[in-house]
Amino acid sequence: MNLLSTPRDRCAFPVQPAVSFEFFPPGTPQLQQKLWQALERLAPLAPRFVSVTYGAGGSTRERTHATVVAIERQLGLRPAAHLTCVGASRDEIAVIARRYWQAGVRHIVALRGDPPEGEGRFAPHPQGYARASELVAGLKQIADFEISVAAHPETHPDAVSAQADLDNLKRKQDAGAARGITQFFFDVEVFLRFRDRAAKAGVHMPLVPGILPVTNFNQVKKFAARCGASVPASLAHHFEGLDADPETRMLVAAHLAGEQCRRLQSEDVQEFHFYTLNRAELTRAICHLLGIRAAPSAGASRAASRT
Question: What is the pLDDT of residues 87-123, one digit of tens each?
Fold first, then answer.
């Protein structure tokens, strides 16, 4: 069934869903300004947390740290810092984690991580963590972090089997993870089947759907190829002929992602994690469709605090 399948119950949903937003650390002053504009636009929606990614091989380590701390101090939001096993010893990761704790950051997204560009398959640091479950356990020994981990509805590309991938997810849960945030997907049935299989495998922590609004269909196809996510033919059909029509593309994207979330709501999903790509408008529109409204005075009070 594709993402536009009719939900079992089309009535209004009485429960406002919880949301979280993911951003990546900017590499230039111009991108820094764009990120901050997106954060300020989405902050009034009162996200449960906002996460900041970590580049392959730890390439954005300091920018991630600076962005996370600034979000906590200047916007008063709850930041979650991505931390990976790649390119760092256990001692180095411990130093990073303690810096976060001392800065007031209590939430970590613990990931195995991707190898640096051109290095092929993941290889652990000789004195580092070999997998995310070990990283979770190590972080829990340092401080009582709230830890989110990755979950893969369509199986991680490096996993030997779907069952092995589920077993790995359970190890992360047993090591202390509080929730799994899924890789993006477009077919709602993919998530529902995954949720059922995870429950049978003993995974009882919340599994939060990762939602990727389609701003650029060709870019999404590349993302999907790297992470093993399927792209339904219906999605390609909806974006056909819109490469040079960004306004229509945004309207279609908002409608499709909104329908995806509403279908998930009809299946008792009440939390969503949005991959924003550092853009606010599309994510804000989807949240509006889901009944999430900005607090009227939130933006004004933050502006006043900076004057």
Answer: 889 999 999 999 999 999 999 999 998 766 666 677 7
30 Cβ neighbours under 8 A, 6+ residues apart? none
pLDDT in tens, 6-49: 444 444 555 789 999 999 998 888 999 999 999 999 999 999 99
Distance of CA 198 to the CA centre of its chain: 19
Containing structural domain, residue 95? 18-300
Residue of 287, 257, 262 whose CA lies nearest to 9: 262
Taking the C-alpha atoms of residue 96 and residue 163, their distance in angstroms, rounded to an integer, is 33
Residue 9 lies in a domain: no
Catalytic-role residue among 22, 72, 134, 259:
22
Q: Do 129 and 138 meet the contact criterion of CB atoms below 8 Å apart?
A: yes
Q: Can you give the C-alpha Rg of the chain in angstroms?
A: 19
Instruction: Give per-residue pLDDT as tens, 295-307.
Output: 765 444 444 444 3
Q: What is the CATH number of the domain that holds 259?
A: 3.20.20.220
Q: Catalytic site residue 247?
A: no
- Residue 186, in any domain of the structure: yes
Give the number of domains in the chain: 1
Reference 266, options 5, 3, 10, 2; nearest CA is 10
